[in-house]
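Structure ticket #2291
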Amino acid sequence: MTSPAYDVIVVGGGNAAMCTALSAREQGARVLVLEKAPEAWRGGNGFFTAGGFRFAFKSFDEVCALVGDLSDEETASMDVPIYTEDAYYEDLMRVTEDLADADLALTLVRESQPTMRWMKAQGIRWIPMFGRQAFKVGGKFTFFGNLVLEAVGGGPGLIDMHYESAKKKGIDVRFEAKAHRLLTDARGRVTGVEIRTPDGNTESLQAKAVVLASGGFEANVEMRTRYLGPNWDLARVRGTPYNTGDGIRMALDIGAQAWGHWSGCHAVQWDYNAPWHGDRKVGDNFQKHSYPVGIIVNVEGQRFVDEGADMRNYTYVKYGREVIKQPRRAAFQIFDQKVVDLLREEYRIREVTKAEANTLEELARKLEIDVEGFVRTVREFNAAVQPGTFNPAIKDGKGTRGIKPPKSNWAQPLDTPPYVGYAVTTGITFTFGGLHITTDGHVLNGEGRAIAGLYAAGELVGGLFYNNYPGGAGLMAGAVFGRIAGRSAAQSALKPQ
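Resolution: structure written out below.
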């Protein structure tokens, strides 16, 4: 028999897929990446992120070592709380309501910093997230929510660096190559992938191992509605239109075990008039994440979440899902002039749905919110605000009393016009349900046995995120399990048969 041209085929072209490919190549494997999207849309959901990675570290020096070129002045201006592995694990289990698979969670936590160092060696460069994850307090940038570093250039920069590294290392990439079916032999071992090309033809590609890293089903309207429920067909897709669950379906077709929170997903508050899929010029700037320093109301003028329950990184996913339950699938983030300077840069883009007014009544009319309900809500909120010192960089305990829902932190009266409001809806990022894998990246079948030759990484892996998600853990999980799956697939493929 003729030996396959490739040892490992990676299905997908985002952060997880490229970490997989680089890892497999590092082991000496001949690697092919199959990306369904055209080259202009390369990078999957990774392109639409801020490029932030959540990792554990025992000292500020470990953070500085990853960046490498921080000046003495920059270092002195940073206040970065230590983030231990135990704290990372506790955060992950807390926000997932103790449902996250303990083995996968521990692997993510323990391998997070080693994977950051490995990515740096692969050509990924890091910088501190001064703009999005720090407030200047007392002359220092105080980092909050345990998310410190991002890839240079954010999500687009991350993807460019991945592909540049892949090119340098001799990894082949085929665009507009839609993986359609997994090929198996008589024993059930995966032996390759059948693809469909733009001209409608099919082509069989042989390999000794296949890694699926092609994302979830968030861009598949039918699957979204079937698994997530009513109104999810009307959600905006935050990222790529090409994540339609193909990798998951192919694996299930050969007996892989479905795993994780299939009715759950990562979602955000997204501009109300954003397009149905991500816009590569705007990137992730349709999101609106400064709500902790304001209030959120629906079209009836009613608050429906505790905006200050926790740092943004631990609430934005579940609050994004809450918006789709509201009338017209709409919500409005309201701020006054005391906090406008604290709003993230995404509030200042041209493509934004906003209104400004000198009175609450006028603001409500401009945003088409019930005027009486809105004014009553703001007055009751203002009266409920308790004394204290406002500090957006920590959970300051400055809350409300006597209203439901409460605001547990960062509560200040809305009393300094002009008032500003931003209209948002739900934007879905990725789905939580997927395939069952081992901690070495092997895909399991319905009986819990490894499917020979098949591995997976990234958003199509189930069992890690349930209900909620700590910011920056998605890219980190894709990198950690991509590195592991690539190594495992290559070692299996290169083993003498």
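Closing remark: The two ends are 13 Å apart (CA to CA).
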